[in-house]
Each structure stands twice: as structure tokens, then as C-alpha cells.
Design goal:
Number of strands: 18
Shape: globular
Helix content: 25-40%
Largest sheet: 7 strands, antiparallel
Strand content: 15-25%
Structural class: alpha+beta
Radius of gyration: 23 Å
Number of helices: 19
Distance between the termini: 35 Å
Bound molecules: flavin-adenine dinucleotide
Length: about 525
């Protein structure tokens, strides 16, 4: 069963390794477990629905509560404390396109706001209803999950947009294919959500981001229907698919998507390489990219992230042995871990790997084989479960990300980390911050920062601290001309910073587009643009 106030399946636990508790105390101080609200008590706070009845809509309080919030830190504070100011008035579960059309018509007729809902894994407030006089209907698309068509010749697969990652990959695997899109939220996030947020998977270096994979589809909007044929290329004016990518539910509901798929790789190899420091790792990474090596993933951790990852990983014997071995070869304090993935034909994987290892050696990198890489691959969708365990002993954790050109990487990374530290210091609290580079491109890369802190007893205090950190880091990003989101989207939390990236005319264009597709203003108002 899905957790209602945390991440993932209730049957899956990720307990903290034995010595990790002392490590956390050293880093940010001793924590006090928070008093979480009980489901029945929160259900009792859900007000009456304002919706007229409709056969596709459920209005029971529990269903509405379970669709009220996503997975951001403020969402967790709301769910765990039970202080949720706004709930959707109902949740619809359409099974067909005809159902979606009927819901759009119903919403227009009754002036109801609609929030398209995929897996609810948003971390930027996309799916949270805002207060107001008009009723809010959340449209959960998970029943639109069918494999509609498979074109083996063109390697295109069309799915209902509500299909979640595991269900989609299982259907493709059975036919010998993969989409190759593996965001860390893979277990719950959906195809429509990925398209609507311009998502990026962990192996995007090899398979491409969602915008590279999205070949076409269908969007049902209050103003009409947009059919996007899966053309391999076109010079017929601007590409309308690009408007739907990142539309965040503002233009309409994506009901189906046609995706470029790949044959299952003959071989996959995930490897760890340790460098004496982050600087050496960065040089090696840039050289690997400039050599155009066919990598499927790459992730380079700073010294602090490397240390934190090793401390929280458990497997003390294995890690102790590894650290002794590295230390004997001069890779010790401040070491930086690089994870490298290769996918595809056996020959290409082997050649690319040995080329990458030899570049790493030029920068004093030590390849420690595949055990670590395989461990990462096996556990890559488990890491978010650690957030449950940390919360329960009194620690909060959040992440933020951007992408900048290579010449801005060092300064941006430094300023993000410093701005977060300073914001938390103003509350007389310590913060543990660490970062990795991933999703590398020839002109730059994404910067992904995680920050860990003690929770306060008062939910409002937690929100105030988070807001101070989020604001400071977002301003640092914008100052370095970084994107306000490399992969999590804009939602409501990043909206104040979008104009810095798009400009006044750009925002006016997006607003005009929303009016064109949704003249009555019912589609997810407040998300992406006002
Ligand atoms: C632990 C964790 C790890 C994550 N890791 C990654 C990562 O590695 N890469 C990454 O890109 N993101 C990541 N995310 C963020 C999130 O998973 C993505 O934004 C994801 O694409 C959201 O998909 P969803 O189906 O859950 O959409 P939801 O959260 O349900 O919705 C997100 C937005 O998309 C709109 N939407 C959803 N479906 C449709 C549809 N069919 N038609 C129109 N609009 C629609 C919604 O209205 C909303 O505005 C992570 C989140 C968590 C909690």
C-alpha cells in the first residue's frame, strides 16, 4: 500500500545503518522525533465537497486527502503535521478518452478547476489545490495505462498517459524493448507526468531526456484537441510537441503519448571510480564527454557527498576495505566518487568502459570495479525510502537542482551550498549540504544538491526555515543564469523565478498559450504561470 504521508510502499523500509545515527548527530546535532498526525484525525479535517455529483468522481475524504499533496518538503510538513489548508473537492478516475472529454465538459459547465494527476510525485507543488471559491477536481489518470500500439518497424510505442514507470517497462520488456527513462521516482511517476514536467531519467545520457523520447501524442484541452503525429522530423513551423512538454497541466490533459523506444541492451555495466578530489573528477568527466564516449549515465559526487554516501550506505566491512585500499593508493580525505553507466551492444560497452577507465587514470582515478556500481543500480529506487527513516528520527532532507554552462559550475555549486548554509545559520541551526553533478552535456551539466537538517517541533518553524533556504538557493541559481529547474519542473514553488529565465515576453507567451488552450481558466491555475 502507498504511504499517505511519506514516500513509497508501506511494506518497504530503509532503516538507517547502525552507526549513521552518531554521524548525523555529529553533523547537525541530536534530533527529536516529531509527533506525526494520525490518518483518521487528518481525514476528519477534510471539509464537505463543493462538487455536484458525477459518476466518475469520488468525494470521500480519504481519497481527497490522498490527492491533496505531492512530495516536496512543504508537502511532507503538511501531511505529517495534518495541517493541510486545502483539499481537492473530488477525484475522478477516467478510464477512457471519452471519460476525459466528459470531465472537461463537466468542469467547463460548472466552473470547476481541474488538476491533472499522474503519480503525485511532484516536488514543486504542481498538484496542490489553491484556496478559492471555485471547486477543485483532481483527475487521476492512472487507469489510462494501456499499451495502445507498438510499431516494431519504427520503434515507436503508444501508451495511455497514466501508465507508471514499472508497468510501462514491464510491457515493453515483454516485447524486447525499453524506454530507458528511469527518474528516481520511477516506481510511481507516470508517462504523462514525465512529459508534462520535462523529466530527466538517470540514464538520460544514453537514452535521452523525455523530450528526446516523446515522439507525439494527444492533448485534450477545454478549447479542443491537439493531435501530435510522431513525425521523425519536420520543418513545418514551430514544433507543437515542445509546447506540451513542460505544460504542467495548464493546457489540457495528455491522454496518450507515442514514445521512441530502444531494443533491450545486450549489456549494461555500472562502475565506480574514485578520484583524489572533485577537481580531478571534473577534468576526467569533461574529457570523457569531449571524447564522445557512449555513456548511459554519469554522476560525480563532491568530497562531502562521497563521504556521506559511504557513511549512510551500511556495508561497513566492504566500505572499510575499499577505503583502506584507496588510501594506500593516495585517494583519501576529500575523495570524489564517479558512477559511470554503459548500456548497449557488448562490444561498445566494453570498449567505452576501457576508454573511460583509461581517461580516469590520467587524472589519478581508481576504478574499483562494478560491485559498487551494481549496488547503486540495484538500490537506485530505494534511496528515497531513507527520507521516511530520517524523518521518523527527527531529520528533514530536501534536494534542489539546476543546470548551468561548464564555466558557471564551480561558482554556482559553491553559492548554492553557501546560501543554504547561511540561511539555516540564521536560525542558529546547522545544515549538512552535499552535491553531485549528473546529466552532463557537452556545454554544461546539472547540479543536484541535497541538504539535511534537524526538524523543529513546530511545523510553521520548519516551513519558515525551508522557505529561507529555498529562496536563498533559488536566488543564487538565478544570479548564475542557471535554470530554475533541470528536471523537477516549475509548479508553484519555482514560479517566482521563472521570469528571470524566460523574460517578460516569454512569460506573456506562456500565459497567452494557456488562455488559448483554456479560455475559461480551469486548467491547474497557479502552476507554471499565474
Ligand atoms: C523521490 C523523488 C525522486 C525524483 N526523481 C526525479 C528524477 O530523477 N527525474 C525527474 O525528472 N523528476 C524526478 N522527480 C520529480 C517527479 O517525479 C517528476 O516531476 C515526474 O515527472 C512527475 O510525474 P507524476 O506522474 O508523478 O506527475 P504528477 O506529480 O502527478 O504531476 C506533475 C505535473 O504534471 C501534470 N500532469 C501529470 N500527468 C498529466 C497528464 N497526463 N496530462 C497533463 N498534465 C499532467 C500535473 O498536472 C502536474 O502539473 C522526483 C520526485 C521524487 C519524489
Amino acid at each position: 500500500m502507498k504511504r499517505w504521508n511519506g514516500w513509497g510502499d508501506t511494506a518497504i523500509l530503509y532503516p538507517l545503518p547502525e552507526k549513521a545515527g552518531d554521524y548525523l548527530i555529529d553533523l547537525v546535532g541530536e534530533a527529536t522525533p516529531p509527533q506525526d498526525a494520525v490518518l483518521a484525525d487528518v481525514i476528519a479535517t477534510v471539509p464537505d465537497s463543493r462538487l455536484p455529483t458525477h459518476p466518475l468522481i469520488q468525494t470521500d475524504p480519504e481519497t481527497r486527502l490522498k490527492h491533496a499533496r505531492g512530495q516536496s518538503f512543504p508537502d511532507w510538513v503538511a501531511l505529517r503535521s495534518g495541517q493541510i489548508p486545502v483539499f481537492p473537492d473530488g477525484v475522478a478516475f477516467p478510464q477512457t478518452e471519452t471519460d476525459v472529454r466528459s470531465l472537461l465538459q463537466f468542469a467547463r459547465g460548472h466552473d470547476i478547476k481541474l488538476i491533472p494527476y499522474g503519480g503525485g510525485t511532484s516536488v514543486v507543488g504542481h498538484i496542490n489545490p489553491e484556496p478559492g471559491d471555485r471547486p477543485v477536481l483532481t483527475v487521476n489518470l492512472h487507469r489510462l495505462s494501456r499499451l495502445i500500439a507498438l510499431d516494431n518497424t519504427s520503434q515507436l510505442a503508444t501508451f495511455g498517459a497514466g501508465v507508471a514507470g514499472p508497468e510501462m517497462e514491464a510491457q515493453l520488456r515483454a516485447k524486447g524493448y525499453t524506454l530507458g527513462h528511469f527518474p528516481q521516482s520511477f516506481e510511481y511517476s507516470t508517462l504523462g507526468g514525465w512529459v508534462a514536467t520535462r523529466s530527466s531519467g538517470q540514464q538520460s545520457r544514453g537514452y535521452g531526456r523525455i523530450e528526446d523520447l516523446f515522439a507525439g501524442g494527444k492533448l485534450l484541452a477545454p478549447a479542443g484537441e491537439l493531435i501530435m503525429p510522431p513525425l521523425p522530423a519536420s520543418a513545418a513551423g514551430p514544433d507543437l510537441r515542445q509546447l506540451v512538454l513542460g505544460s504542467e497541466g495548464r493546457l489540457g490533459i495528455i491522454t496518450e503519448a507515442t514514445m521512441r523506444i530502444s531494443p533491450l541492451p545486450e549489456k549494461e555495466s555500472f562502475n565506480a571510480i574514485f578520484f583524489p578530489n572533485f577537481e580531478a573528477g571534473k577534468k576526467a568527466v569533461r574529457q570523457m564527454l569531449q571524447a564522445n564516449l557512449p555513456l548511459s549515465m554519469l554522476r560525480l559526487s563532491t568530497g562531502i557527498e562521497t563521504e556521506t554516501t559511504l557513511k549512510l550506505a551500511g556495508h561497513e566491512m566492504l566500505i572499510g576495505t575499499l577505503e583502506r585500499l584507496l588510501s594506500m593508493r593516495g585517494v583519501d580525505e576529500g575523495k570524489s566518487m564517479l558512477l559511470l553507466g554503459f548500456s548497449g551492444n557488448r562490444h561498445i560497452v566494453n570498449t567505452a568502459r576501457s576508454e573511460a577507465v583509461s581517461i580516469a587514470k590520467e587524472h589519478d582515478g581508481i576504478h574499483v570495479g562494478q560491485q559498487f556500481g551494481n549496488q547503486w543500480q540495484k538500490g537506485r529506487f530505494r534511496t528515497p525510502y531513507l527520507r521516511n527513516a530520517l524523518w521518523e528520527i527527527g531529520y528533514g532532507v530536501d534536494t534542489l537542482e539546476t543546470a548551468v554552462t561548464w564555466n558557471q559550475v564551480d561558482a554556482t555549486l559553491q553559492d548554492i551550498e553557501t546560501s543554504l548554509q547561511e540561511a539555516m545559520a540564521s536560525f542558529d541551526e546547522r545544515l549538512h549540504v552535499f552535491t553531485h553533478l549528473s546529466h552532463v552535456y557537452s556545454t554544461g551539466c546539472s547540479i543536484y544538491t541535497t541538504y539535511l537538517f534537524r526538524l523543529a517541533a513546530d511545523p510553521d518553524e520548519n516551513l519558515a526555515r525551508w522557505m529561507a533556504m529555498k529562496t536563498a538557493a533559488s536566488l543564487a541559481i538565478v544570479q548564475h543564469v542557471g535554470t530554475i529547474s533541470h528536471q523537477h519542473g516549475v509548479g508553484k514553488d519555482h514560479r517566482p523565478y521563472l521570469e528571470a529565465e524566460k523574460g517578460e515576453l516569454g512569460i506573456a507567451t506562456l500565459e497567452a498559450l494557456a488562455r488559448q488552450y483554456d479560455p475559461v481558466g480551469i486548467m491547474n491555475p497557479g502552476t507554471l504561470v499565474k
